[in-house]
Amino acid sequence: MGHREDLLAGARRCLEERGYARTTARDLVAASGTNLASIGYHFGSKEGLLNEAIAASFQEWAERVRALALAAVPDGAGDPVRMLVASWGAMLSSFVEYRGLSVAFIEALAQAERQPELRAQLADTYRRSRAQVAQMITEALGVPDERRASTLASFQIALCDGLLVQWLLDPDATPSAPQLVDALTAMLGTAAGVGDGQDATTLA
Length: 204
Prior knowledge:
The chain is mainly alpha-helical. It is built from 9 helices and no strands. Helix 4 (46-72) crosses helix 5 and helix 5 (80-97) packs across helix 9. The longest helix is centred in the N-terminal third of the chain and has 27 residues, at 46-72.
């Protein structure tokens, strides 16, 4: 690998082991076997390197969840409940596998408000992840409407982010995939009863 690839690999190790906020430029040099000048040459700054490593890891994470979910129900296309259980189960399992990166990602989010470049990079990462998840929803459930698939993907991502925070703080209290499906079913049933047959979009 060249210095750029070495730096990204080293940055990922630092993010997993030290987190976003505590990683220094010297940590990155030591982990990558490169030098300080290489960071500036390839990424402009330590933050630029960490931001790109975070974005790449996030994309890998999203693809990992997608692969796990599809593998869990190879014949489940068109079955929303089975796909929900599979995708949410894969999501919860991935938290263990990507715990170090999860913590680093939460730390990066906290910095994004004061770092416009990081904020733009994370927003772009979310856009790409939303497209990935929307594609999975289209493949698995046959949702042909692109806008609807994107909205469903945003819901899935929002659920993932919320569950991640809960899991990091108290894993034992985080609901399982079947419990999440039961809760969603109950909420939709209650909403339908309250709305007395109204379309869900009119209940706000």
